Amino acid sequence: MSARDEILQRVRAGVGKPDFAARRAAAEARLSHPVRGPQPVVGDQLASRFRARAESLSSTVGQVAALADVPAAVAAFLQAGQLGCAAVATDDVAALAWAGAGLDVVARAAVDADPVGISGCFCAIAETGTLMLLSSPRTPATVSLLPETHIALVPVGRIVATMEDAFALLRRESAGTPRAINFISGPSRTGDIEQTIVLGAHGPCRVHLILVEETP
User: Fold this and answer.
1) How far apart are alpha carbons 110 and 89 in whole angstroms?
2) What's the first-to-final CA gap in the chain, in angstroms?
3) Is 157 within 8 Å of 213 (Cβ atoms)?
4) What local confidence, expressed as pLDDT, does residue 196 receive?
5) Nearest-5° Cα angle at 196, 195 to 200
6) Predicted confidence (pLDDT) per residue in 6-29, tens digit
7) pLDDT computed for residue 173 by the predictor
8) Which pLDDT tens digit goes with each residue over 145-178?
9) Could you give the CA distance from residue 30 to residue 22 in angstroms, rounded to a whole number?
10) pLDDT computed for residue 14 by the predictor
11) What distance in Å separates the CA atoms of residue 133 and residue 124, rounded to the nearest whole number?
12) What pLDDT, on a 0 to 100 scale, did the predictor assign at position 215?
């Protein structure tokens, strides 16, 4: 037996409990049937609630009728802000007709020098105006974190009421938990000791959301 195995065996003996199997089964049962605590009343108008909360967090919000309208909406936003026409995108939105709108969009992970990142989202949360993004090889987290401007496409049909609803959706649609789950509530911000809020200190200084009415 190696020294490592001996140490681990001693640790297991020291922390082991005779009712380990029962405690594990109880924990797994609770995880598979989570109990929800008190929740706010969000109402049925999820899109309008999400938009109002997102705008209160300094995000800007646009809306289009269909996915095909997204490239023109992104081009108009970038032109209005004099933000250029180059961007990186996650694979899930890379197939849109970006070039037809005069944009140079490349599907890859972002680096520090990239000015704009365009992504989809797993879902959006009306209660807080928050995006829920899942990391994967097709949806690298850098696209939403490194560029100074993050543009996210939000299908209206993927807006849920609460954080609990977002996790319930994840459990239904995902075989397992991804390596990272990122929640984005407006631009990055920080405050010094005098509580002066500064946007963009640790990530994007602009977050622009495009609500897409069309169901994918």
Assistant:
1) 8
2) 57
3) no
4) 79
5) 120
6) 898 888 777 777 777 788 888 888
7) 92
8) 999 999 999 999 999 999 999 999 998 998 888 9
9) 12
10) 75
11) 9
12) 66
Kindly tell me if the per-residue pLDDT of 216 is higher than 70.
no
Phi, psi angle pair for 181, to nearest 5°: -120, 120
Task: Say what the alpha-carbon torsion angle 95, 100, 102, 103 is, to the nearest 10 degrees.
Answer: 0
Query: CA-to-CA distance for 80 and 139, rounded, in angstroms?
Result: 27
Amino acid identity of 79? Q
What is the chain written as a DSSP string? --HHHHHHHHHHHHH--TTHHHHHHHHHHHHHSPPP-------S-HHHHHHHHHHHTT-EEEEESSGGGHHHHHHHHHHHTT--SEEEE-GGGTTS-TGGGT-EEEES---TT--EEEE--SEEETTTTEEEEE--SSS-THHHHSSSEEEEEEEGGGEESSHHHHHHHHHHH-SS--S-EEEE-SS-EEE-TT--EEETSSS-SEEEEEEE-S--
pLDDT of residue 138: 95
d(CA 170, CA 179): 13
Nearest to residue 127, comparing CAs of 54, 203, 65, 176? 54
Written as six digits, the tokens of 40 are: 């706010």
